[in-house]
Amino acid sequence: VADHGDPDLGVPLARALQVAPGWIETYRELTIAQSGTAPPGMPTAFVLQYLIDPLATVVSAAARLTPFVLSTDPGLWSIGLDPTYLYPVGVQVRPGDHRRVEDDVERLDAAYEAYAATARAIATDLPSPTKMSSLQRLGMVEDMWEISLARLAGAPPPERQSCCLLYALPGCQPCAGCPRRD
User: Which of 22, 36, 95, 109 is 20 to 30 A from 170 in CA distance terms?
Assistant: First the structure.
């Protein structure tokens, strides 16, 4: 948790849509440097995942492990990135309209609704240099929430609606939970 005066860590979620095009292009270049190719859509899928997975992870963990529903106001959130490979390595949350909810079911439902509203807005409005279907975009929102809950429970990843396209890289297989798995 950061103080109001702390500088943003990495990518301020409130600026995600402005930062995303450069991040997508840089991630595309990194993927080409590492694998020799960057399948169309893959860099955008990864950047979308990198934007909403930390939000899902922290919001669901707070709802499951504490009595709090965290505000998902993008102005309160920043994501720290690995300096070389640009994946999330930290999350910064500022004080805000976080609230205590005593009932476990009500708290998890409220946390999901808050997360989903913010994540859907990011997913829907994310600029992409290639076509990205609404199933891919909104499926990623649901997938990141379900994956975060599975992690908390120590369960394997659930089957996904969205695909990160990792399987399209040379030598890679569909990841656990991939909708393309047989």
Answer: 22
